[in-house]
């Protein structure tokens, strides 16, 4: 099981699968992300790397 943060709400999310998708510049690795709040996304895996600094469960715009 591979966990990340939801791109929409920052809740904990699971990367359900990875799949290379052909493009004009060669294959691009894509992932399916499904969060505990039932959001789901099909997106390039490089966008998940951009979420690496996001803490799962942290709300946007709230102070600690």
How is this structure best described in words?
It is a single chain. With 64 residues, the chain is mainly β. It has one domain (2-50). The protein has 1 helix and 4 strands; from the N terminus they run E-E-E-E-H. The chain has a 4-stranded antiparallel beta sheet. The longest helix has 6 residues, at 45-50. The N and C termini lie far apart (28 Å). 9% of the residues are buried. The model has no long low-confidence stretch (mean pLDDT 84).
Please state the oligomeric state of the protein chains shown. single chain
Percentage of residues in DSSP E strands: 35-45%
**Spatial order of strands in the largest sheet:** 1-2-3-4
The succession of helices and strands, N to C, reads EEEEH
Domains, number? 1
**Tally of contiguous helical segments:** 1
The gross shape turns out to be elongated
Instruction: Report the C-alpha radius of gyration, rounded.
Output: 13 Å
Instruction: State the end-to-end distance.
Output: 28 Å
Largest sheet: 4 strands, antiparallel
Number of strands: 4
Q: Determine the fraction of residues in helical runs and give it as a percent range.
A: under 10%
Taking pLDDT < 50 over at least 5 consecutive residues as the criterion, the unreliable ranges are none
Structural class of the helices, strands and pairings? Answer: mainly beta
Overall average pLDDT: 84
Features:
about 60 residues, mainly beta, four-stranded antiparallel sheet, 1 helix, elongated
């Amino acid at each position: 099981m591979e966990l990340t943060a939801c791109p929409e709400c920052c809740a904990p999310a699971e990367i359900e699968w990875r799949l290379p998708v052909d493009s004009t510049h060669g294959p691009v690795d894509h992932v399916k992300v499904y969060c505990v709040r039932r959001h789901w996304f099909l997106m390039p895996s490089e966008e998940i790397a951009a979420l690496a600094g996001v803490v799962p469960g942290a709300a946007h715009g709230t102070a600690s």
